[in-house]
Design goal:
The protein is of the alpha/beta class and 414 residues long. The protein has 13 helices and eight strands.
């Protein structure tokens, strides 16, 4: 099997594990009225979104994929992969509560409650229990997969793992990252370390796709799920492993050089972000765009995408610094960092929303209104009516123009 340079696959298979409990079959009868559509299920304290195949039956066992989104968007990945679920007969669920920056004990409570509920209510093939997640949610999924021996595989979308914390023996691991994703380099390094071991006992697959820091498209997720199934199929192990190692060796050398450059540049940007001025980053972005265009023209595709990932990394830094300054009431620094944010990622709506917050704090209603309009134009996601709940905006809500600007901010459909 052969892939483009950005499609790396690493597979070595081994599957063993203990069997979790199942409830009596008659307890499933009242739970499948929502076959073929996304539904929300409560565990009592927590909830999750779930998609069951339209032909779901208590008389059949289904592979389970439990997902974690970085922002607790339980329906988003299910909407992306509903056709895949239908065609491949998986039960897929995603937590509506797990998100970035929770305490470890909160993650544990959410995970236990959700997994117990899924195994208790649905007809699940316990030899095919899989976890997955996006960004911070991927890190959460990986940690639970490492500690819960029932889990046979994990899909890490847009996040890597510490090379010192390699997957446990028998755990199938799939990595998915956009070729412009700033986390691609950390993911590559982790998988490279796994593959150094000739006798590795963890199934390992790495897939890249055309995209940024986002959930993988359905076609790539299908490859991921197909390989998770193969990871526990004895007759497919040897051929898949041979293909994977051959493909890895073909691209390893040149990608290693690219990633080394990228890591050096990231460290440089991280060290100087707080001290450099706006003009410096304007120059850097211009350079990155020029080098990207030049390398694309000359056929140096790997290097060209590295420049795009560095620009995404600058965007992530700008968001982090801007958000920290806003939260700490550092108005002058917040102005500087949001200006940088606008330069390094002009199409991102978040910088405009932050500018609106800053203007509101200065009692500058016209600027706050115009920045909210800009945020709407850029596609700001007003999830959970964030703008309506923003304390800085409350004093202006009696102004019709400002209120209209707030109402124009729509929540994206999950």
């Amino acid at each position: 099997m052969r892939f483009f340079f950005y499609l790396l696959i690493f597979l070595i298979f081994a599957c063993k594990g203990s069997e979790p409990r199942q409830l009596e079959s008659n307890q499933h009868d009242s739970l499948v009225s929502f076959n073929g559509k996304i539904s929300t299920v409560s565990t009592g304290v927590y909830s999750y979104s779930i998609y069951l195949p339209a032909n779901y039956s208590k008389d059949k066992k289904y592979p389970l994929l439990l997902l974690f989104d970085a922002q607790a968007r339980g329906k988003m990945p299910l909407n992306l992969y509903d056709t895949l679920v239908e065609k491949n007969d998986w039960v897929v669920a995603c937590s509506n509560n797990a998100k970035n920056q929770l305490q470890p004990s909160e993650y544990e409570q959410i995970y236990k409650a959700t997994m117990d509920d899924l195994l208790g209510k649905y007809s699940i093939d316990t030899s095919m229990l899989m976890l997955g997640g996006f960004s911070g949610g991927a890190r959460v999924a990986y940690q639970f997969a490492q500690t819960d021996s029932r889990i046979k595989g994990v899909v890490m979308n847009s996040a890597g793992f510490d090379p010192l914390n390699k997957p446990r023996p028998g755990l199938a691991l799939v990595g998915l990252a956009g070729i412009e994703d700033f986390n691609l380099s950390e993911m590559f390094k982790g998988f490279r370390e796994v593959f150094k071991d000739e006798n590795v006992e963890s199934p390992t697959l790495y897939l890249a796709f055309e995209g940024k820091h986002e959930w993988a498209p359905e076609a790539r997720m299908k490859l991921a799920l197909d390989y998770l199934k193969q990871a526990c199929t004895p007759e497919s192990k040897k051929e898949a492993a041979a293909d994977a190692r051959s493909e890895f060796e073909r691209v390893k050398e040149r990608l290693t050089r690219v990633i080394a450059f990228e890591e050096f540049s990231r460290k440089k940007y991280s060290a100087e972000f707080g001290s450099k001025d706006v003009s410096y980053f304007k120059t850097e972005v211009t350079k990155l765009n020029q080098m990207n265009a030049q390398d694309l023209k000359n056929g140096r595709i790997e290097m060209a995408y590295s420049y795009r990932r560095l620009q995404q990394f600058l965007s992530m830094l700008a968001y982090s610094y801007s958000n920290s300054a806003l939260n700490n009431g550092q108005t002058e620094l917040a102005e500087k960092f949001t200006n940088i944010y606008r330069i390094v990622d002009s199409s991102n709506a978040e910088w405009a929303y932050m500018k609106a917050m800053l203007a509101a704090r200065k009692n500058d209603r016209p600027t706050a209104t115009s920045m909210l309009k800009k945020a709407a134009e850029l596609g700001f996601d007003n999830k959970n009516k964030r703008a309506q709940k923003q304390p800085e905006f409350s004093p202006f809500m009696t102004d019709q123009a400002f209120a209209d600007a707030v109402l124009a901010l729509k929540a994206k459909e999950e």
